[in-house]
Design a protein that fits this description.
Blueprint (H helix, E strand, L loop, with lengths): L8 E4 L2 E5 L8 H14 L2 H9 L8 E2 L2 E2 H11 L29 H4 L13 H13 L3 H24 L3 H4 L9 H11 L3 H12 L46 H8 L22 E2 L10 E5 L6 E6 L3 H4 L14 H26 L5 E6 L7 E6 L9 E11 L4 E13 L4 E6 L5 E12 L2 E11 L5 E9 L4 E9 L3 E9 L4 E9 L10 E7 L10 E5 L2 E2 L3 E3 L10 E7 L4 E2 L6 E2 L4 E6 L4 E5 L1 E18 L9 E17 L27 E4 L1 E2 L2 E2 L3 E5 L10 E16 L2 E21 L20 E5 L3 H10 L7 E4 L1
Parallel strand pairs: 15-37
Antiparallel strand pairs: 1-2, 3-4, 5-6, 6-7, 8-9, 9-12, 10-11, 10-13, 13-14, 15-18, 16-17, 17-28, 18-23, 19-22, 19-26, 20-21, 20-23, 24-25, 26-27, 28-29, 29-35, 30-36, 31-32, 33-34, 34-35, 36-37
Helix pairs in contact: 1-3, 1-12, 3-6, 5-6, 6-12, 8-9, 8-12
């Protein structure tokens, strides 16, 4: 096959008057509509929303044009200036270096040409660079411009793919004046006749033919190294029936060239299609009907086409090369039957191009380091899916501030090879006021070298857990017991206590940036002590709905919870082997937002709460005193109020003790737990530690005496260095004693009255964010909520 007979240069008097270029393929506006429909059939809208944080998806406007429109603009602009169209041909039966004809490059090369010249360079490498710019440039305006350029570039590459669904572009037919197939499609598209326009719309509405993902294989060609070239030419078709394919592995130029004819190549110049593939003729409309014409279907060697070629009058055959004597013609019915197969492929392959360009198979998280809460751990992971591609290149983390300015995060870059199912981590120090994290990748992805992909993870709105109350769920136990009752002694004790095994905690979800934080929650779950074994005896309720111990969006009837409640009904507050206390209550309530931010909030529980009152009366002989003082009558009263609190972020037992066992002075900015007790307990302020009085006042032979004592420690205790915090415990005890001495014959056991154990108090704790927690809020540029928790 040669090209010289198909391209014409007009010469008059030795002067070159002009090179007659190929007529336009699908008209520019047709390319635009094909591109727009391809966008709608692709995954691009969801990718932009979910992967790159563009809420408007393909409808997002840049400089007044939606991203969808920018792609359509690119699909249109590839034909301007007209000289570019010399590079829009590809014959799959030729070597790629020769497949574009004598006046231009093959479209396979042109789509990857880094220097296209006239009209600017809008090829695959440029699209990749501008996409990298979109991910990494500092200025929001510059990034938007880069995304518009990316969309336009991909649209222009898409144009070349659509041309591969035009028979003339795959069969060395430059259609110097006009191509009948493409003219008919444009006639339908541009028609003011509603019926004709509807036929074009119906063609666009046909189901798309999507190529298989496995079509993207290596090319081994330095001028077209990116596997996207395989969408045009899989390099499997050799011009034979045995190598012609219509399936999802076929390159679009191969499918078109071997399955269809163009105006100047009707059963000439190519082995396929063959005359032998035609079936018996039929008339449409029926014979003896005005306008009746005999058509021949193609019934073998590919897809069945009802109107493949037609018989025509001599004046009609003159318009088709080589058909004057007993040949065939192509008419509107033929062109529309072709379009019913070719346009869905053009749309489907264009959609596949978009999916391939914007593909990504990695995820990343930024979490607080367990070893150093002031650091962050960047974790990059490739899923174990069979479709996941190996990524060999550099991952760089960028932070976007509240003004939208992006910059690389120092120390947060990894150059590595990550195969399917693998992951990599690095540690970095976070900045402040981060509105979003962006992970940009450049390198090899699957079989594409120089690939660019990324992921944008907004950090907000940040949702916080606020605990309002913890309260005992069971009834108070109150008992009065007479321990001793005889002629000389009476001891009566009243005890009051609550069952720490049955409690409920309540609270809400809040955000400083939205009044409805619930829709931003992705997961909520209870975190228990890692040493606990067995099923937890706790239930999480969200908006009064029991969700077990964890909730995942989409798996529950609860969609956007605003309130939470935790109910515990424990066999014992502590489990574990002998000598080891393992708490069975949840330590933390953990949330993860749809943006991927995880916040772990410690919980506060009662560990115990008791009060006791004792009344004691006694009579005793004292022979060492004078006769008138040899009998003692003594009355004493005492009360004890004591409680222990469990902190989820405390030590193994939930106490406010540092890892080395030390306690912090009352003047310390923070202790080991993120809570500070407030208010008073039994009339004493937090931090009170005192001891006064003594009950050793009725000694010797004094005729009468009375005394009292008190010991108070309100969430603090004395240490060698002074007062230190003991936030998990308070204790208040009082005692008084009075006594008289009488003659032995007038002495009797006095009456002490009934003891009255004091009421169990309410406790209040203010949330005190520890430095590690504060760094997280600072990193995300939000103010943490201030709140108090009431224990009752």
């Amino acid at each position: 096959m040669t090209y010289s007979a198909r391209f014409v240069v007009t010469v008059v008097g030795g002067l070159v008057l002009g090179a007659i270029g190929p007529a336009e393929p699908y008209a520019p506006t047709t390319h635009s509509e094909l591109g727009a429909v391809a966008v709608d059939r692709s995954n691009l809208d969801a990718i932009l929303k979910n992967q790159y944080g563009i809420d408007g998806g393909t409808s997002y406007a840049i400089e007044g044009q939606a991203i969808r429109t920018w792609i359509a603009i690119g699909a249109t602009r590839e034909d301007f200036p007209g000289i570019r169209s010399f590079n829009h041909f590809h014959s799959p039966l030729e070597a790629w270096a020769d497949a574009g004809g004598p006046l231009g490059q093959s479209s396979v090369y042109w789509q990857q040409n880094p220097n296209q010249g006239l009209g600017g360079t809008w090829s695959w490498p440029v699209a990749r660079q501008r996409f990298f710019d979109f991910l990494t440039l500092p200025s929001p305006a510059a990034r938007e411009r880069a995304l518009a350029d990316t969309a336009r570039s991909v649209g222009q590459v898409m144009h070349l793919l659509q041309d591969a669904a035009s028979p003339a572009h795959t069969r060395e037919d430059p259609h110097l004046i006009q191509d009948g197939y493409e003219a008919r499609i444009e006639e339908l598209r541009a028609s003011l006749d509603a019926a004709l326009k509807a036929r074009f719309e119906a063609l666009l509405g046909l189901p798309s033919t999507i190529p298989a993902a496995s079509i993207f294989t290596s090319t081994g060609d330095a001028k077209a190294p990116v596997p996207v070239a395989r969408l045009i030419d899989s390099d499997a078709y050799r011009g034979t029936v045995q190598t012609y394919a219509t399936g999802a592995q076929a390159g679009l130029a191969e499918y078109t060239s071997g399955g269809y004819v163009s105006d100047d190549t009707i059963f000439r110049g190519f082995t396929l299609p063959r005359r032998e593939s035609l079936g018996p003729p039929h008339f449409d409309p029926p014979a003896d009907t005005p306008g009746a014409r005999r058509y021949f279907p193609k019934t073998t060697d590919g897809d069945t086409i009802t109107h493949f070629v037609a018989e025509g009058a001599l004046y009609e055959r003159l318009l088709f090369r080589g058909q004057m004597l007993g040949g065939f013609i192509l008419d509107d019915r033929v062109y529309e039957d072709y379009a019913a197969q070719l346009l869905p492929r053009a749309v489907g392959y264009s959609a596949s191009l978009l999916n391939y360009f914007f593909r990504s198979n990695f995820d990343f998280t930024v979490d607080v380091s367990s070893g150093d809460p002031g650091k962050r751990v960047l974790t990059i992971s490739i899923p174990p899916d069979l479709s996941a591609e190996t990524m060999d290149g550099t991952f760089t983390l960028y932070a976007e501030d509240q003004d939208g300015v992006r910059g690389p995060v120092p120390g947060a870059s990894i150059t590595t090879v990550l195969p399917r199912g693998a992951s990599a981590q690095t540690l970095f120090t976070p900045g402040s006021g981060v509105r979003a994290y962006v992970l940009a990748f450049r390198g090899g992805q699957g079989r594409e070298s120089g690939a660019v992909t990324g992921k944008v993870k907004p950090t907000g709105p940040l949702v916080s857990v606020v605990q309002a109350t913890t309260e005992f769920a069971g009834e108070e136990a109150r008992t009065t017991v007479t321990d001793v009752d005889n002629a000389s002694t009476l001891i009566v004790v009243e005890r009051r206590s609550r069952d720490e095994r049955r409690q409920r905690a309540t609270g809400t979800f809040v955000s400083s940036t939205t009044s409805a934080p619930g829709p931003h929650l992705k997961r909520v779950w209870l975190e228990f002590d890692s040493r606990m074994v067995g099923a937890p005896a706790a239930r999480l309720l969200l908006d009064d709905v029991d969700v077990g111990v964890a909730w995942n969006r989409g798996d529950s009837m609860v969609e956007g919870p605003s309130r939470w409640e935790i109910r515990v009904d424990l066999p014992a507050f502590y489990g574990g082997a002998a000598g080891i206390l393992v708490p069975t209550v949840p330590r933390f309530l953990v949330i993860e937002t749809v943006e991927g931010i995880r916040i772990k909030t410690p919980l506060v529980w009662w560990r115990s709460a008791t009060s006791l009152a004792e009344a004691r009366a006694g009579r005793e002989s004292v022979t060492s005193c004078p006769l008138e003082l040899q009998c003692e009558e003594v009355i004493s009263h005492s009360t004890v109020l004591h409680a222990l609190v469990f902190f989820g972020d405390g030590n193994a037992e939930g106490r406010d003790v540092a890892a080395a066992g030390q306690r912090q002075p009352l003047t310390a900015a923070h202790t080991a737990v993120g809570f500070i007790p407030t208010g008073t307990v039994a009339g004493y302020g937090v931090g009170t530690v005192e001891q006064s009085g003594s009950l050793n006042c009725f000694a010797g032979c004094s005729p009468a005496a009375s005394c009292s004592t008190s010991t108070v420690s309100i969430f603090a205790e004395s240490a060698a260095e002074g007062l230190v915090w003991k936030k998990e415990e308070f204790s208040v005890s009082f005692g008084n004693l009075s006594g008289v001495r009488k003659p032995a014959n007038s002495c009797a056991r006095p009456s002490a009255g009934q003891p009255a154990a004091p009421d169990l108090p309410e406790l209040r704790f203010r949330r005190d964010y520890l430095p590690a927690e504060q760094s997280r809020f600072q990193e995300l540029g939000v103010t943490p909520p201030e709140y108090e928790i009431t224990l009752r």
